[in-house]
C-alpha cells in the first residue's frame, strides 16, 4: 500500500485558507513524523519478512509497518486532516509507528529491560524499515538462554501493539509486566511452535494390492466421513488369489464417528465372507487404531 502525501503536509507551500482548530500546526507535526520515519517512496524490499522466525500474524503486522498501514495517529491524521496525532500512551509526542513500538518512554521501559544486542545509539537511531529488519533478522541469543533475539523482538513489538490497542479501545491502564509476557510467548514459540530441523525418520514405501496365498481370499474395506462425528459411509470388496473380483459392498451408516464406521464396514465384510462360505480370508485395513484394537488380547 502506498500513500501520496500532499506538499502542504510535508513542508511545502502553505495552502490557502487555514482550517480552524490549529489544523496547520497538526499537519506540520504529522509531516515531521512521517519524514523522520523515512516515508516509503521506492520499491518494497521486505522479502525477508516471510523468512523471519515468528508466527504468521506477526509477519503480517511487520509487513503493514513497512507499508505504513497500521492505524497510528500520524497516519490517520494524514488521511483525516483534523485527527489529532498525539500519542495515546504518553500524551506527549506524536504517535508514529516508531513512537508506539520504540520511542515512547512507556515503550522504552520494555526495551531497556530486555537489553537489545546492539549499541543503544544504533537501536534507537534506525529508521522504521532498518530497525525492523535488523532486529527481526538478528540471530544472536538472548542472555542466559538459547532463544534468538529476532524471536524475542518480534513478540515484543506485537505485545507493545496489543498493549497500545488495549489502552485505546478498552481504556485499560496498560500492562505493567510486558517483559514477562514477551519472554513467555517467545519461549513457548521457540520450543513448541518453531519447526526445528530434525533428521527425517520417514521412509517411502510403495502401497499396492498384493496377491493372497493360493486358495486364499482377500477382503479390503474402508470408510469415509464428512467429519468426526458426521455423516459416514463405507464399503469393501473381495478378490481371490488370481486377482479376480468376487463380491463388493457399500452402504450409508448415517451419523457416526470414523472409528465406528471402520468397524461397521469390517463387520459387513466379515458377514459377506461367511455368506460366501470363504474359510481362509486375509483382511486389509488402512486404520492402524482398528488393527491395534483387534490385536489386543482383551479386545472386545
Description:
Residues 46-111 form the Reverse transcriptase zinc-binding domain. Residues 220-296 form the RNase H type-1 domain. It comes from Castanea mollissima. This is Reverse transcriptase zinc-binding domain-containing protein. This protein is of the alpha+beta class. Helix content is 42%, strand content 12%. The longest helix has 21 residues, at 149-169. Helix 1 packs across helix 3, helix 4 (97-103) crosses helix 5 (105-114) and helix 8 packs across helix 9. Strands 3-2-1-4 form a four-stranded mixed sheet, with helices on one face.
Write the layout of secondary structure elements.
Layout: H1 23-36, H2 56-66, H3 73-79, H4 97-103, H5 105-114, H6 120-123, H7 128-136, H8 149-169, H9 178-193, E1 217-225, E2 230-240, E3 245-256, H10 258-275, E4 281-284, H11 288-295
Parallel strand pairs: 1-4
Antiparallel strand pairs: 1-2, 2-3
Percent helix = 40-55%
Q: Span from first to last CA?
A: 63 Å
Q: Nearest-angstrom radius of gyration?
A: 32 Å
Instruction: Let me know the largest β-sheet.
Output: 4 strands, mixed
Q: Give the percentage of residues in beta strands.
A: 5-15%
Q: Please tell me what the overall shape is.
A: elongated
Secondary-structure content class = alpha+beta
In total, the number of strands is 4
Q: Whole-number average pLDDT?
A: 82
Count of folded domains: 2
Give the strand line-up of the largest sheet.
Answer: 3-2-1-4
Secondary-structure element order, N to C: HHHHHHHHHEEEHEH
Q: In terms of quaternary structure, what is this?
A: single chain
Stretches with pLDDT under 50, minimum 5 residues: 1-21
- Count of helix runs: 11
